[in-house]
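Researcher: We plan to redesign the surface later, but first we want a full-length starting point. Tokens attached.
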């Protein structure tokens, strides 16, 4: 669930709880709309969902939230910063997408999507290899983008390549070590967890900023933080 800012004094209707949702009673949380849309059988082996299905679902939830966060926003909205030194919605989406692009391309032995013309289309004031990690407040403030659609289109292209890379993995591939610079060494499985968590963290931050922006502009969209 994404925490989304509400107008002061807003009262939320509490849903009726089933027996398993009552306080003190063991049970699962109610499914989100996104969960309900995924009620289709996945590949099963020995009674267990395949690792690839879990990875694709985890990454896919971030992929579908990116355009939802950006939908209806203007250029001014995506480059807006709450104060000096803060991230903008646009920078956060670019950073999470660039980070996924770099890590997934390395994992899959591919060229980054960014290097296939997207760097020139964005024309950012950064080195072509920049992905947001280690940037200063001045670097973040310098971020600009020609259109919101450019962010969405790049994110869509990265998501497509990520799915291709994950779909090419076998169950035994996940245990392969791909980075020995850490102790313990990083496996493909661990790297994929990092990509999913990083993306979820930043898309949540972007959604929160969207809520702040709507309060500043007094133009609420009614978006509830999920798709």
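Model: Full-length starting sequence:
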């Amino acid at each position: 669930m994404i925490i989304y800012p509400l107008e002061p004094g807003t009262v939320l209707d509490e849903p009726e709880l089933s027996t398993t949702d009552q306080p003190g009673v063991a049970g699962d949380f109610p499914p989100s709309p996104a969960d309900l849309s995924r009620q289709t059988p996945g590949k099963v082996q020995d009674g267990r969902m395949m690792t690839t299905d879990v990875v694709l679902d985890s990454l896919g939830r971030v992929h579908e939230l990116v355009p939802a966060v950006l939908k209806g926003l203007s250029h001014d909205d995506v480059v807006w910063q709450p104060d000096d030194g803060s991230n903008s919605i646009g920078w956060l989406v670019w950073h999470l997408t660039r980070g996924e692009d770099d890590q997934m391309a390395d994992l899959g032995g591919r060229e980054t999507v960014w290097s296939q013309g997207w760097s020139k289309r964005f024309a950012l004031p950064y080195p072509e290899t920049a992905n947001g990690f280690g940037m200063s407040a001045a670097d973040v403030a310098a971020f600009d983008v020609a259109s919101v659609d450019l962010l969405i289109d790049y994110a869509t292209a990265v998501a497509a390549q990520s799915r291709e890379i994950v779909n090419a993995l076998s169950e035994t591939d996940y245990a392969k070590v791909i980075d020995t610079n850490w102790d313990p060494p990083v496996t493909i499985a661990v790297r994929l967890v990092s990509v999913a968590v990083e993306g979820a963290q930043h898309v949540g931050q972007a959604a929160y900023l969207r809520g702040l922006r709507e309060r500043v502009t007094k133009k609420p969209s009614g978006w509830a933080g999920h798709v």
